[in-house]
């Protein structure tokens, strides 16, 4: 059973990345364009309009798996900012200050910074294509040299 779960892990990670990125992009689209039940932010208004732009662009990139780690890093930081500047001053806990979405997105994107995009992503397509063109195949990790004390 565990072997099957371990084999599925890169694919489930890709599904997780896609869903989180898509939901984040929907938040941005709702704020930028007033669609999906959102209220349109005034163009250039700080911080709402810029946050929505980050949400739309980074969410789209993460969903596609293109520049995943960098986009997830920026998205995570923007959600940390949103939580601590907008929600946390209202109350300490996310349940009390309506900051649950910001906290969850922040941690989900931080996870993607460290795990990468998973098996199914445009990052993998372009990465394997460039590596195959060089005739190198899969890059190998070299052992770190032992440090003597």
Describe it for me?
There is one protein chain. This protein has 149 residues and is mostly helical. Helix content is 68%, strand content 0%. Helix 1 packs across helix 5 (100-115) and helix 2 (48-64) runs antiparallel to helix 3. The chain is globular, with a radius of gyration of 19 Å.
Short descriptors:
68% helix
Major sheet summary line: none
Roughly what is the average pLDDT, rounded to an integer? 87
The helix/strand series, from N terminus to C terminus, equals: HHHHHH
First CA to last CA: what distance? 43 Å
Strand content: under 5%
Which descriptor suits the 3D outline? globular
Low-confidence segments, given as residue ranges, are 129-141
How many E-type strands? 0
Give helix % range. Answer: 55-70%
Structure annotation, total helices? 6
Structural class: mainly alpha
Integer-rounded radius of gyration: 19 Å
Quick summary:
This protein has helices at residues 2-33, 48-64, 68-87, 94-97, 100-115, 122-133. It is mostly helical. 26% of the residues are buried.
Task: Give the helices and strands, then pairings.
Layout: H1 2-33, H2 48-64, H3 68-87, H4 94-97, H5 100-115, H6 122-133
Helix pairs in contact: 1-2, 1-5, 2-3, 3-5
């Amino acid at each position: 059973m565990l072997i099957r779960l371990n084999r599925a892990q890169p694919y489930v990670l890709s599904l997780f990345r896609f869903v989180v990125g898509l939901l984040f992009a929907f938040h941005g689209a709702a704020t930028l364009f007033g669609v999906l039940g959102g209220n349109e932010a005034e163009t250039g208004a700080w911080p709402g309009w810029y946050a929505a732009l980050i949400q739309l662009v980074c969410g789209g990139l993460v969903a596609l798996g293109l520049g995943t780690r960098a986009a997830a890093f920026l998205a995570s930081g923007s959600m940390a900012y949103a939580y601590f500047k907008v929600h946390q001053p209202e109350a300490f806990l996310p349940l009390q200050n309506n900051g649950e979405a910001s906290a969850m997105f922040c941690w989900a994107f931080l996870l993607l910074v460290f795990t990468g995009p998973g098996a199914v992503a445009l990052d993998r397509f372009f990465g394997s294509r460039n590596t195959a063109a060089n005739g190198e195949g899969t890059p190998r990790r070299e052992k770190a040299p032992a440090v003597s004390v």
